[in-house]
Amino acid sequence: MLVRVNPASPEPIYAQIASAVRREVAAGRVRPGERLPGARDLAAALGVNLHTVLRGYQELRDEGVVELRRGRGAVVTHAAPRIAGPAAALRAFVAEARRAGLTATEAAAMVREEMS
Amino acid sequence: MLVIALLVGVLLGIAAALVAPGAPAGSALASGPARGPRLELAPGERAVWSAWTGVSPAVLAIPLLALVPVLVMAVLEIASAYLLLVVLLVTVVVAGSLYARVWVDERGLTVRGPLGFPAYTVPLAEIAAVDVIEVSAMGEYGGWGWRLGRRQRFGAIFRSGEALQVTRGDGRRFVVTVDGAAEAAAPLTALTDRAHRLTFFRPQGVGDLLPGRNGGPGRRWGYAQVVPSTVRRAGRVVHRQSPTRSTAPLRPRPRPALI
């Protein structure tokens, strides 16, 4: 799993970590059932705060890409390969919708319309 | 017999770990761009690659099977509980040396077992080349685990097939079998290049600009080669011994006794 973090980027570091994992899962380089590196170790390797990595992992858990288990760390879910690609695209869509000043309801309506 | 064989294996492994990093310090240093596939990194960008690697369940079964006769003997009260304990401990250590997490980051290439040992790091400053190779566990290393191979090779060998190999400046090699070795090689080469490249030296105070202090007259405002701290220390020692320049450390003036 490759994680690239650029502190000069306007994207927050935790979001860069989460999107790196999403990209690896969507590309099939990280498979369901695989354990992500421990947050403490990854934080040390990246030279970032432990809580930054944990926040990135939590974002992935909220999307259903990983499961966080006490003592077992972050494990990639079986649904992850299906979710990771759209979840990444969704981030871009939401950012664009925010910039355009759309409300959550309007944005959701657009998605529903597009998918029906 | 199996237990003895395992013990011998563990001892050999420990010996291998002791022998492999024992070359003279500094000689392994590499300079210039490393050979290998590379990734484009923006200035200040950090890249980390990590993967879990280990033996197949069939290989893990070997140390576990070795436990069986001792278990049976313990149940039949032929063997003492202490023997069982020792054998259990050995089995855990052996099993732990059959798995590892591989890290590619600012510190170099690191392979670390789940117990925290064995662990081995090749610092970026020592890497001269990064290669993706094919290994044969039995043919080249005579088995699985942490092993010495022929031609200055030291390896964390968990299976045959795809492996990541780094070559040091002095020709010594470290090999680890891991899936996605090509994906690991690209950031490792890029990080190595960056570590070998010239970095900007900014004087921190007047002392840095004075000749003979803090690295001496060679250090000017500008670009300087990054070297690991140990070598930098060694460099200072050599500099102090130079007959042309007196750079003996300033001794603190003896304090007048307080009355």
Computed structural class of chain A: mainly alpha
| Largest beta-sheet characterization of chain A | 2 strands, antiparallel
Helix content of chain B: 25-40%
Number of strands of chain A: 3
Largest sheet of chain B: 5 strands, mixed
**Total strands of chain B:** 11
Radius of gyration of chain A: 15 Å
Percentage of β-strand residues of chain A? 5-15%
Give the helix tally of chain B. Answer: 7
State the end-to-end CA separation of chain B: 76 Å
Estimated radius of gyration of chain B = 24 Å
Strand order of the largest sheet of chain A: 2-3
Question: pLDDT average of chain A, as an integer?
Answer: 88
Helix content of chain A: 55-70%
Number of helices of chain A: 5
Reading the helices and strands of chain B in chain order gives HEHHEEEEHEEEEHEHEH
Shape of chain A: globular
Can you walk through the features of this model?
The complex is a heterodimer of chains A (116) and B (259). Chain A has 116 residues and is mostly helical. Helices cover 59% and strands 10% of the residues of chain A. Chain A has five helices and three strands. Chain A has a two-stranded antiparallel sheet with strand order 2-3. In chain A, a hairpin with a 3-residue loop joins β2 and β3. The mean pLDDT of chain A is 88. Chain B is an alpha+beta fold. Helices cover 35% and strands 25% of the residues of chain B. Chain B has helices at residues 2-19, 57-75, 81-96, 137-141, 181-196, 206-209, 229-241; strands at 46-54, 99-105, 108-112, 119-122, 127-135, 145-149, 153-157, 161-168, 173-177, 198-201, 222-225. A five-stranded mixed sheet of chain B has the order 5-8-9-7-6. In chain B, strands 1-2-3-4 form a four-stranded antiparallel sheet, with helices on one face. In chain B, a hairpin with a 2-residue loop joins β2 and β3 (108-112). The longest helix of chain B is centred in the N-terminal third of the chain and has 19 residues, at 57-75. Chain B is elongated, with a radius of gyration of 24 Å. The model of chain B is unreliable at 21-26 and 212-251 (pLDDT under 50). At the A-B interface, β1 and α2 of A face β1 and β2 of B. β1 (2-5) of chain A pairs antiparallel with β1 of chain B, so a sheet runs across the interface.
